[in-house]
Prior knowledge:
The structure is a homodimer of 418-residue chains. Chain A contains 13 helices and 20 strands. With 418 residues, chain A is α/β, with parallel strands linked by helices. Chain A folds into two domains: 3-252, Carbamate kinase (3-Layer(aba) Sandwich), CATH 3.40.1160; 256-418, VC0802-like, CATH 3.30.2130. In chain A, a hairpin with a 5-residue loop joins strand 7 and strand 8. The first copy, chain A, starts with a strand and ends in an 8-residue tail after the last helix.
Amino acid sequence: MSLVVHKYGGTSMGSVERIKSVAKRVAKWHRAGYQMVVVPSAMSGETNRLLALAKEVSGSASLRELDMIASTGEQVSVGLLVIALQAEGVDAISFCGWQVPIRTDDSYTKARITSIEDQRVRDELAKGKVVVITGFQGVTDDGHITTLGRGGSDTQAVAVAAALKADECLIYTDVDAVYTTDPRVEPDARPLKTVTFEEMLEMASLGSKILQIRSVEFAGKYKVPTRVLTSFSDPMIPIAEEASSGTLISFEEDENVEQAVISGIAFNRDEAKVSVLGVPDKPGIAYAILGPVAKANIDVDMIIQNAGVGGTTDFSFTVHRNELQKTLDVLKNDVQPSIHAKEVTGDPKVAKVSVVGIGMRSHVGIAALMFETLSKEGINIQMISTSEIKISVVIDDKYMELAVRALHRAFELDKAAA
Amino acid sequence: MSLVVHKYGGTSMGSVERIKSVAKRVAKWHRAGYQMVVVPSAMSGETNRLLALAKEVSGSASLRELDMIASTGEQVSVGLLVIALQAEGVDAISFCGWQVPIRTDDSYTKARITSIEDQRVRDELAKGKVVVITGFQGVTDDGHITTLGRGGSDTQAVAVAAALKADECLIYTDVDAVYTTDPRVEPDARPLKTVTFEEMLEMASLGSKILQIRSVEFAGKYKVPTRVLTSFSDPMIPIAEEASSGTLISFEEDENVEQAVISGIAFNRDEAKVSVLGVPDKPGIAYAILGPVAKANIDVDMIIQNAGVGGTTDFSFTVHRNELQKTLDVLKNDVQPSIHAKEVTGDPKVAKVSVVGIGMRSHVGIAALMFETLSKEGINIQMISTSEIKISVVIDDKYMELAVRALHRAFELDKAAA
C-alpha cells in the first residue's frame, strides 16, 4: 500500500471552512487506499498573534518560552483537522512533535531535526488511521519544545516523509506549480511538470518563495519525491488527476526524456552590491576584507575579485539590502584604513537574475546566449557568478523585469519541453 | 527554605497587564527567598474560544482531540508568565503537564491525576528558578495529553503542592476570602481567617464556588495547607501582610483556639424536590424508586423517607433543577405503575440552606437553634438532612435570603470568633 505525506500551509488551514475542505481531500485519498500522514500548519495569522502577545509582555523574551507559546498554533490545527476528518467518517489521531517524537537540537526558534522515531506513527497507520502531526516543532533530548522557525513545517513534512520512507510528499500550497519564472513578471511563464532537486535548490535559494530552502535540502538529502501543488482546487477532483498535477521534484535524471537545458529564470532584488576599490593585489586580501564582515554576522552572497592594473585590484560582493549600511560601516571603519583601499562604495539598486538548469552541465553556449540576450537589450552586467547548474548576473534593478522576460524568451521557456 | 505553590485563575491572567501584575507578585515572593512553583490558568475566555472553534468544525468531536486543543490555552499562559518574570529579572522556566510529568488516567476532558514526578521541578528549583506549570492538564501513561476538566487547575495546583510537600498552596482568585456566607445576601458576612478542610468541603459541595470541590478533596487527602486570597490587591503589599490574608484551609484542629461552633451558612437554589407519595411501606422500596433514577444517570442529593400511616409512606429526594423533568418522566413511566404509588410530585421552587461547622461535633443545640430561627421567621421546613458537621434544610426558595440572614445573625457569625 502506498504511503503519502500531505503538507498544508497556513492559508490552506485559514478558516473552519478551509479545514473542512482539507479534511475532504485527505478523506478522499484515505478512501482510495493510501496510508496517510498529514502535516498542517497553524491557521494563518495565529503564529503572528501569539508572538505579538509575547512581545507585548516583553520585548526580550527567552527563545525557549517563545517556542512554548508559538508551538500551540500547530497543536490547535492538528486537533481541529482530526475532528474534521472524524466528521468525514475517517479514523484519525493527532500528535505533537514531542509525541512522535521528532527530535531536534536545542536552537530554540530555529531548531534542526536530528531524528524522527517512526514506530508510534507506524502503529497508528497499521490500525488504518490517518496520522496528523504538527508541523514546525519538535522536542530536544531533554524534553523541551522547540520550533523549526518560519516555514519549518515544509521541512517537517519532508523529514517525516523521509523517516517513513513515504512514496511521495505532497506540499499543498497557494500556487499550483513551480513555474519557469514568476508569472507576475512574465505572463508566458509555464508550470513545470518536473524539476530536479538541484534546480529547485537553486530556484529556492534565489528567491522563489514556494518552498523553504531547508525543506528542499532535506528532500535532496533523503531522496524524498516531493510534489508542489495547490490546495485551492476542488477537493473532490479525481485522485489520478490530482496526483499528477503541480510540479514533482525528482531525484533521478530520467534517461529517456530529453531534459530541458534551462528549467527556469530566478531573480530577486533583496541584495545590494558593495565594492572595495584600489586594493593592493596581494595574498590575504579577501580575508582582510571579509573577515570583519563575517565577524559582524553579515551574510555574504556573490563574491568577485578582478585582477586590476598597477598592482591594485577591485573587490566586490553582495549582501542583503537591509545590511548594506552596517556593511559599509564595518568596511569604512575597520577595513579601509588597514588595507589602504582607495574607496568603498555601496549600491542598493541592483538585482540578481539567474538562469537555472541541470541541462547546462552537458550543453555549451548557455552563458554566451545569456550575455548576448542582455546585451541586445542594452543591459549592462555588473557581476557574474556561476555554478554547475546556474549562471547569475547582477544588473541595475530597473532592468530586472526586462531581463527576466528577454531570457525567458531566448531560452524558449514558454514552449513545452520535448 | 520555604516552598510555596501559587495558583492564579483565568481572570488573574486575563490580560497582558494582569500577567505583568502576577509576575510582580511572584517576583516579590521569589526575592524574599521563597522557592516558587506557579500554576496559572489560561487567559480568561481562551478555553471557551478554543472549544467553540472545535465545535464549529464538528459537534461530535473526539474527547482526545478536544484535550489536544484546549490544553494549548494554559501552554500559552505559562510561556507568557515566564517571559513576564524574566522581564522582572527573575530566572524562570515553564513546563507543560507532560513535561513534569503529571500523569493522569485516560478520561479525556475530565482526567484524574494518578501521580506527579517531582524530580524535574526540584532540579529547576535547586537552580534558583521559578517553575511555572500548566494547570488543568496532564499526560497518560501512553503519552496522550489529557485535561482535568473545568476548574481542574485548582486541583492541579494542590496536587503539585502535595507532590512537592510544599509549605503552603496559595490560590489567588477574584474574591479575597471564604466568607461566613455570601456577602451579596448578607452584608454582614465576615471573612474567615481559617476554615477546616471538612467545613470547606461541605461549603464547596453546597454551592460556594470559590474552590472546585476536587481540589478541596485533594487538599484534604494530602493535608496541603491551602489559602484562598485575592490577586486583585496591590502586588507589592508586604509579604507578611499578604501571607496572612484570605482564608487558610487547615488540617489540624488547633487545641489552643476556641473553635467557632458554626463557620458558615451555605445555600443554593440549584435543586428541585421530588416526592413519591402513598408508597407501600415495605423493604426494597427505596431501591425500587432510586434504581431507575440512577440508571437514567441522574444524580440524587438529599433523600428522606418518613414512616407514614396505614401501611404507606412518603418518599422524597432532591435532584438538580435541570433534571427535574427527566426524573418525573422516569418515575411516572417506570416506577409509579410497578410500586403502586399514589402520586408523584415535583417542585423546582425550593432552596437548600445549610449551617456548617466542625464545632457542632461537640456542641448540642445547633439543630434546635436553626429550627427555632426559621420558625420565628415563619419559614416552613420541607426536608432535613444532617451530617456530622452540617445541617441542611429544604425550604420554599422565596425565603432563601431571609433564612440565610436570620441564621447568620442567630449563630452570631457577624461577630469575630474568640
